[in-house]
Design goal:
The chain has one domain: DHBP synthase. Helices cover 25% and strands 21% of the residues. It has 6 helices and 11 strands. Strands 1, 2, 3, 4, 5, 6, 7, 8, 9, 10 and 11 form an 11-stranded mixed β-sheet that branches. A hairpin with a 6-residue loop joins strand 2 and strand 3. Helix 1 packs across helix 5. It starts with a strand and ends in an 11-residue tail after the last strand.
C-alpha cells in the first residue's frame, strides 16, 4: 500500500522527501508530480524495480522509459549529444519535453530501446521533483503515469486509488499537475544531418524551442 506524502509544491519539506527517497532506494515505485502529468519513478540500477515499473504501466521493453535528470550536465552522462543537439536541449530545459537520444554506455542495456539503443531523457521544471532528485543524488527512471488499459495520464495524486495505489510504495502529493504529458522529440536523426522528429505533441510548445 502506498505511503502518501502531502507537500507544498514550492517548498516541500526535505524530511518527507527523504522518506520517499528511502522507499525508492529499497526498490519501491513512486508516483511523483512533474511539470506535465504525474509520473512513475524507480531506481535506475534496480532490474526488479524497472520490471515492476513496466508492469504497473502495462508496457513492454520496446516502450521508451525516461531518465529524469536534475540538469544538462547530468543528462550528458547518459546520452551521446553533439553540439547542435546540445543547443536545442539547452533551449528546452528545464521544461515539459522528453528527448530521445543515443544512449551512452552508462545506461544499462536492458533500459535502452532493444533495437535502437536509445533512451528518453528530460529535465523537469518542478520544484518538488527537483528537490526529490537532489536528495536522491542521481537520475530516476520514469514513465508517464497512465493506468493500465487507459489512455489518459493522471494529473492529481487523489486519482491514484484502488489497485494502482496498492502497487506503489509512495505517492508524493504536491497538488494537481497539468493534464498533458510531455512533448516527445526524437533527436537521433540530427546526428546524421537530419531534423528532429516530433513523436508526441504534449504540453511543451515547439515554437518556444525554435521547431
Amino acid at each position: 500500500m502506498a505511503q502518501f506524502f502531502e507537500v507544498h509544491p514550492d517548498n516541500p519539506p526535505a524530511r518527507l522527501l527523504r522518506q520517499a527517497v528511502e522507499l525508492i532506494k529499497r526498490g519501491g515505485i513512486a508516483a511523483v508530480p512533474t511539470d506535465s502529468s504525474y509520473a512513475l519513478v524507480c531506481q535506475l540500477d534496480d532490474k526488479s524495480a524497472s520490471d515492476s515499473l513496466r508492469r504497473i504501466r502495462g508496457v513492454d521493453d520496446k516502450h521508451h522509459l525516461t531518465l529524469l535528470c536534475r540538469d544538462l550536465s547530468e543528462l550528458s552522462n547518459y546520452a551521446r549529444v553533439d553540439n547542435k543537439q546540445f543547443r536545442l536541449l539547452k533551449a528546452a530545459t528545464p521544461g515539459p519535453f522528453t528527448f530521445i537520444l543515443e544512449a551512452s554506455k552508462e545506461v544499462p542495456r536492458r533500459l535502452s530501446h532493444p533495437s535502437r539503443k536509445t533512451i528518453g531523457l528530460r529535465v523537469p521544471d518542478h520544484k518538488t521533483l527537483q528537490s526529490l532528485l537532489e536528495l536522491h543524488g542521481g537520475p530516476l527512471l520514469a514513465t508517464t503515469l497512465i493506468p493500465r488499459g487507459e489512455t489518459e495520464s493522471l494529473s492529481d495524486a487523489q486519482e491514484i486509488t484502488g489497485p494502482l495505489e496498492r502497487e506503489l510504495a509512495a505517492v508524493i502529493d504536491a497538488g494537481a499537475c497539468h493534464k498533458e504529458p510531455t512533448t516527445v522529440i526524437d533527436l537521433t536523426p540530427m546526428a546524421e544531418g537530419g531534423e528532429p522528429v516530433v513523436v508526441r505533441q504534449g504540453r511543451g510548445e515547439l515554437g518556444a524551442i525554435g521547431l
